């Protein structure tokens, strides 16, 4: 009898431990919850949460009062002091949690930019960019209200530029279409970056997250020798469920970026972007939001432009 009881203890204790661990695993929050606060993501500010999540974002925008240079075709001067550029973008991403402290993720993004009138089309051309990235995220510290992670990112990009301006000037100068004067040019770029991400939950209603990224490589639209660039941003999130019983969340973000994207193609300086997202916070299994973006920077290294855009962002947590 005593041997039988010992055998039962030997069998039951491991079974209980496995079941207990399983309960802990399956009762973990599928969504980005910290300190009983459900964080709502915002495009442009990466979060530190290690979750299994899929993301799809579709957006578009245009410039406001873009100042254009005086354009000369032969002996004729074309004056159009203002114009506009249209921008469309699509992003798909997936993050897979491997352990509670480790995840891997992949992202794909395609962006297009073109002038909407003759002068802006001639001076800015048509630009498209595709980027593919891989990353690894590791948890560094976690308390009841604070979470900090580090991530390593590798990004491979490719920019296609339809340079109408230089192409026409080359035809005029040589009086012919020549192979050394291409209309379409392609610029590859490879970047690697280390990102620190943090999140803090003040209470059930308010939370904030911050990131700081150091990137080394060829900026996707600057070209030239590789360099070191820095990006940083902060987001403040309010979950209105606990105040008004309405499942809605507001997230405001501000991002400073030295690595330009196609929105600020040929930019020689940094850009600043402000964002406001209105999202649904009634569940932890998916996040759906409408986001407004405003960005200020230079275009072509000469003229300043303000971009205004909107995006629909959907994320599904498993």
What does this structure look like?
- The chain has 318 residues and is mainly beta.
- Helices cover 15% and strands 57% of the residues.
- It is built from four helices and 18 strands.
- It has helices spanning 2-26, 118-124, 164-174, 241-244; strands at 33-34, 37-38, 53-64, 66-67, 71-73, 76-78, 82-83, 85-99, 102-115, 126-142, 146-162, 184-201, 206-217, 227-239, 248-257, 271-280, 286-299, 303-317.
- The strands form four sheets. The protein has a twelve-stranded antiparallel barrel. A two-stranded antiparallel ribbon has the order 1-2. A two-stranded antiparallel ribbon has the order 4-7.
- A hairpin with a 4-residue loop joins strand 12 (184-201) and strand 13 (206-217).
- 31% of the residues are buried.
- Mean pLDDT is 79; it is low at 1-27 and 264-268.
Please state the CA-atom Rg, rounded to the nearest Å.
Answer: 25 Å
Average pLDDT confidence is 79
The strands making up the biggest β-sheet line up spatially as: 3-8-9-10-11-12-13-14-15-16-17-18
Number of strands: 18
Uncertain spans: 1-27, 264-268
Helix-strand makeup class: mainly beta
Number of helices: 4
Q: How much of the sequence is in beta strands? A: over 45%
Principal-axes geometry comes out as: elongated
Largest sheet: 12 strands, antiparallel, barrel
Pattern of helices and strands = HEEEEEEEEEHEEHEEEHEEEE
Helix coverage percent of residues?
A: 10-25%
């Amino acid at each position: 009898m005593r041997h039988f009881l010992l055998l039962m203890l030997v069998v039951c204790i491991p079974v209980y431990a496995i079941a207990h661990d399983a309960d802990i695993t399956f009762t973990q929050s599928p969504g980005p919850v910290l300190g009983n606060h459900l964080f709502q993501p915002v495009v442009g500010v990466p979060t530190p949460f290690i979750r299994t999540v899929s993301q799809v974002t579709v957006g578009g925008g245009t410039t406001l009062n873009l100042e254009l240079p005086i354009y000369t075709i032969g002996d004729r001067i074309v004056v159009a002091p203002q114009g506009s550029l249209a921008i469309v973008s699509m992003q798909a991403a997936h993050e897979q949690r491997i352990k509670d402290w480790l995840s891997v993720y992949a992202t794909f993004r395609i962006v297009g930019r073109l002038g909407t009138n003759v002068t802006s089309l001639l001076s800015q051309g048509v630009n498209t960019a595709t980027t593919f990235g891989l990353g690894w995220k590791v948890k560094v510290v976690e308390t009841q209200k604070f979470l900090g992670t580090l991530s390593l990112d590798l990004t491979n990009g490719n920019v296609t530029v339809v340079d109408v301006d230089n192409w026409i000037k080359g035809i005029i100068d040589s009086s012919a279409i020549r192979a050394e004067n291409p209309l379409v040019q392609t610029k590859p770029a490879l970047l690697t970056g280390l990102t620190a991400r943090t999140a803090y939950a003040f209470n059930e209603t308010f939370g904030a997250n911050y990131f700081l990224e150091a990137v080394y490589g060829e900026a996707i639209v600057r070209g030239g020798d590789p360099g070191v660039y820095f990006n940083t941003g902060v987001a403040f999130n309010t979950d209105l469920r606990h105040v008004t019983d309405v499942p809605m969340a507001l997230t405001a973000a501000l991002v400073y970026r030295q690595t330009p994207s196609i929105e600020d193609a040929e930019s020689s300086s940094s850009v600043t972007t402000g964002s406001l997202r209105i999202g649904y916070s009634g569940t932890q299994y998916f996040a759906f939001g409408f986001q407004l973006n405003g960005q200020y920077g230079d275009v072509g290294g000469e003229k300043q432009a303000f971009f205004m855009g909107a995006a629909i962002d959907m994320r599904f947590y498993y």
